[in-house]
Design goal:
The complex is a heterodimer of chains A (about 200) and B (about 280). Chain A has about 200 residues and is mainly alpha-helical. Helix content of chain A is about 80%, strand content about 0%. Chain B has ten helices and six strands; from the N terminus they run αααβαβαβαβαβαβαα. The chains are: A mainly alpha (about 200), B alpha/beta (about 280). The interface between A and B is large, with 78 and 93 residues.
């Protein structure tokens, strides 16, 4: 009974969501929108579970003196932001928005900007011409990189053409092959879940 | 009873909403005919493969290096006495097939880490994924016969913010220095930040995602990468469950059909350039 009901709910709603995709009728669209709204409500409740887990983990670590400074700052952020929003609102000029724009956004931008350095180090490793395929990759990457800059046309008129040919044909063909595989994999996984073959999410029972 | 009540509630609310809108196009959207036909063909092939297994037929799938390395990664972590870090990425929620596929691999990884008594850390950005992962890992530990080794606090929620999550996982990797890292799920810009940090500390990294852009980063930064459908085939490969293997095989049959269709359309388009029957 403990697994039969979730499996049945999954089957019924799986078939319903599959069916609504093929309909333009307002009832079908309303079914879709309603289920999305239900999902938002479920998510809001589980967010409380997530926050409780975060707070419990942080408090335990602070009491055990494991990374107490990092954990205290994280916990303070979790507590201060909602308090600021409740006291001053979230409109322009509010302390919440000021904190968001001057503290959270710069921190996120900093982490994002690290990506540039990581791309450089990963490219250096990836483009080392140790084997024939790696050499082909290196030469192709150089052609594409040079072809995308204004200087390319000064070197040769055919550089940009070669670049677009590489992107539109060999690269696109490989990408589409991977995408077909991913699409089919997603579809069979969804079918396995709807038909109740895949039950890992129900503790495998 | 519960599914019926839920169904009635959804339909009642939807009919009310539709009446307020006051439009009534047909029930079937003809623009989706090709998708519907393809879906039914795929469904028939999947059901055929599953029924063949039930009547005694056996399917095998080729070796996938990334999944073969799972034992090596867990063994290495056990020998080093270091934990294993498993992350589903920031991009997906529990509805996404990639996350479901990642959960299937997590189940097998949890079973093995329980056997080897190796710590498994699972930080996530989504509280629903956290709740499901806790259940999956708990079951994995129970299946292995060591339910007491399960630590629910090792599967925890961090933040729903993309770079907040990436920074936190990076911090965990730098401080705890896991011997093996599994990056399996839906990844976006945070993929390379995590993979490069893992690479810098010398962890064995097994990655897989459904994003073709992030796959390129994983191939460069990780030791093993599950490309395309390999991530979805993992469930059958690791569990050796016959029905799951059958659906993976069905996937191959559908792929052959698509390839034949593309070849036929290509030849047809070359012979008769003005023909468009194959366009949809």
């Amino acid at each position: 009974m403990r697994t039969k009901i979730p499996l049945l709910v999954c089957l019924v709603f799986g078939i319903m969501m599959f069916g609504q995709y093929f309909s333009a009728h307002p009832i079908a669209k309303a079914v879709y929108n309603n289920i999305l709204e239900w999902w938002q409500i479920i998510f809001a409740f589980t967010l409380l579970v997530g926050v409780a887990s975060f707070a419990r983990n942080s408090l335990r670590n602070i009491s055990q003196r494991k990374e107490p400074i990092h954990r205290s700052i994280a916990l303070a952020g979790l507590l201060v932001m909602p308090v600021l929003a409740l006291i001053g609102g979230t409109k322009t000029g509010s302390p919440f928005l000021w904190s968001f724009q001057n503290m959270l956004a710069p921190m996120q931008s900093t982490v994002f900007s690290l990506l540039a350095f990581f791309v450089a180090s990963a490219s250096y490793r990836g483009f080392r011409a140790r084997t024939i395929p790696a050499t082909i990759l290196l030469v192709t990457a150089l052609i594409v990189l040079i072809g995308r800059i204004p200087l390319a046309e000064l070197i040769s008129q055919s550089f940009p053409k070669i670049t677009f040919w590489v992107q539109d044909y060999p690269s696109m063909a490989a990408r589409r092959a991977i995408l077909i595989g991913i699409g089919l994999g997603s579809m069979t996984t969804a079918l396995r879940v709807i038909l109740g073959i895949e039950r890992t999410y129900l503790r495998g029972e | 009873m519960v599914p019926v009540v839920l169904l009635v509630l959804v339909l009642r609310e939807s009919v009310c909403a539709a009446q307020i809108e006051g439009q009534s196009p047909g029930w079937f959207n003809t623009d989706t005919t090709a998708t519907l036909v393809f879906s039914f063909i795929s469904l028939v092939i999947v059901l055929y493969a599953i029924l063949s297994v039930r009547s005694g037929r056996r399917f095998k799938i080729r070796e996938i290096p990334g999944l073969k390395a799972v034992d090596e990664a867990i063994g290495r972590a056990t020998e080093m006495g270091a934990p294993i870090l498993y992350t589903p990425g920031w991009g997906g929620d529990i509805q996404r097939p990639t996350t479901i596929a990642s959960m299937n691999i997590l189940s097998s990884v949890a079973e093995r880490t329980a056997e080897y008594d190796c710590r498994l850390i699972y930080p996530t950005h989504d509280p629903v994924i956290m709740a499901v992962a806790q259940e999956v890992v708990k079951e994995g530990y129970a299946k292995a016969g060591y339910p007491d080794r399960f630590k629910p606090d090792d599967i925890f929620y961090i933040s729903s913010s993309q770079f907040g999550y990436a920074a936190a996982v990076d911090g965990i990797i730098s401080r705890i220095k896991p011997a093996s890292i599994f990056l399996l799920g839906t990844f976006e810009a945070e993929s390379l930040i995590m993979a490069e940090t893992g690479n810098s500390i010398g962890s064995i990294q097994i990655a897989g995602t459904d994003s073709t852009i992030q796959l390129a980063f994983f191939i460069v930064a990780c030791d093993y990468t599950l490309i395309g459908e390999e991530l979805f085939a993992a469930s059958g490969y690791l569990s050796q469950n016959e029905s799951t293997l059958a659906s993976v095989k069905a996937q191959d049959m559908i792929k052959i059909l698509i390839a034949l269709f593309i070849i036929a359309a290509m030849i047809w388009a070359t012979i008769r350039p003005l023909s468009t029957w194959w366009k949809f």
